Amino acid sequence: MSAMFKVILSMAIWGSIGLFVKNIDLPSIETVFLRATIASIFLIVYGFTRKSISKSSSIENSLESQSINKNDDRKKIYILIASGITMAFNWMLLFQSYKYTTISNATLSYYFAPVFVILLSPFILKEKFTKSKFFAVAGAMLGLFLILNNQGVTSSANYNHIKGIIFGLMAAVFYASVVLLNKYIKGLSGYEMTVVQISTAAIVLLPIIIYRNNLHISGLKSLIFILIVGIVHTGIPYLLYFSAMKDLKAQSIAVVSYIDPISAVIFGFVFLKETMTVFQVIGGLLILFSTFFGSKEKKVSESPSETSV
User: What's the pTM?
Assistant: First the structure.
């Protein structure tokens, strides 16, 4: 399997996650907890089976070696844990978005995250806010306006598109926060970082899950879809993405990453009969083009948290 095909496949898999989340009869918190738990177990078992942890040095050894040379190790560990907590909120809000609006609306509003990164990076990362970034933000805002004001007719009477898009935008804020937090984490591979982040998300949510006592899987259908979301939509695409990173240029990955939202819109249309108006299509294209051109000079990070759901 070529590196490019691995990335394309992983992006297409991530684009289909909304189809399965919509068919899981559980609240978003419980769904995210199960996704994080199943994916953590899958990735850890894979790591030990393939001896990838021992070959690239274990997470524990990496942190220990850093503590010998650096004084700010504890701060970085706290940041890594904070990014895991942020990832949990990111997923929860995105899954809530799927419940209230169409997959295309949820995905396109979620892809507003690079715009938030552009807006926050001058303050947090001290990056220059260029003219091209200004036009990227303006274009994305116009695209969002077109989507909000031109909702098509959908087959579900339970949709609340404005509420769903707001959840998608809130998820994008947390997505952007994960991206910015990861900028401060050095010395760990993308695999190690993601295992810690996803495991942290599961651990942090565990007390909430116990307190809510609402983890009741209603039937075999929900159980199968939960396993698919945890393994097929999380564990497997992350592994594909990791193995392809070293063989592709950053710009190539940036371009291919837009298969994710495009495939999400196509899946929603084909399987759920979700339609978009002409103005919504224009708005979606504005958001995608704006986020692409606004961040095209940035190097793509090794962490899949910055390129996927």
Answer: 0.86
195-237 pLDDT, tens digit per residue, is 989 999 999 999 999 999 999 988 899 999 999 999 999 999 9
Round to whole Å and give the CA distance between 267 and 274: 9
Report the alpha-carbon distance of residue 309 to residue 306 in Å, rounded. Answer: 8
User: What number is the average pLDDT over the span 95-122?
Assistant: 91
Q: Is-contact 116 176, C-beta < 8 A? A: yes
- How many Å separate Cα 37 from the centre of its chain? 16
- Phi/psi region, residue 129 (left: phi>0; alpha: psi -120 to 50; beta: rest), is beta
**How far is Cα of residue 142 from the mean position of the Cα atoms in its chain?**
23
Residue 261's pLDDT is what? 92
The one-letter code for the residue type at 86 is T
Query: How many degrees, rounded to 5, is the angle at CA 238 between CA 307 and CA 253?
Result: 40
- Copy the structure tokens of residue 133: 């970034």
Q: Are 86 and 80 in contact (CB under 8 A)?
A: no
Task: Name, in order, each residue with C-beta under 8 angstroms of 272's C-beta and a sequence gap of 6 or more.
Answer: 19, 22, 102, 103, 155
Contact between 7 and 244 under an 8 Å Cβ cutoff? The reply is yes
Residue appearing with tokens 């707001």: 166
Q: State which residues form the domain around 120.
A: 3-306
Instruction: Count the Cβ atoms, other than its own, within 10 Å of residue 74.
Output: 11
For residue 64, the one-letter residue type is E
Assess contact for 223 and 35: CB atoms under 8 A.
no
| pLDDT score at 57 | 47
CA dist 247 and 252 (Å) reads: 10
In the chain, how many domains are there? 1
Helix axes 278-294, 103-110, angle to 10 degrees: 30
Instruction: Give backbone dihedrals phi and psi of 105, rounded to 5 degrees, phi first.
Output: -65, -45
Closest Cα partner for 276 from 146, 98, 145?
A: 146
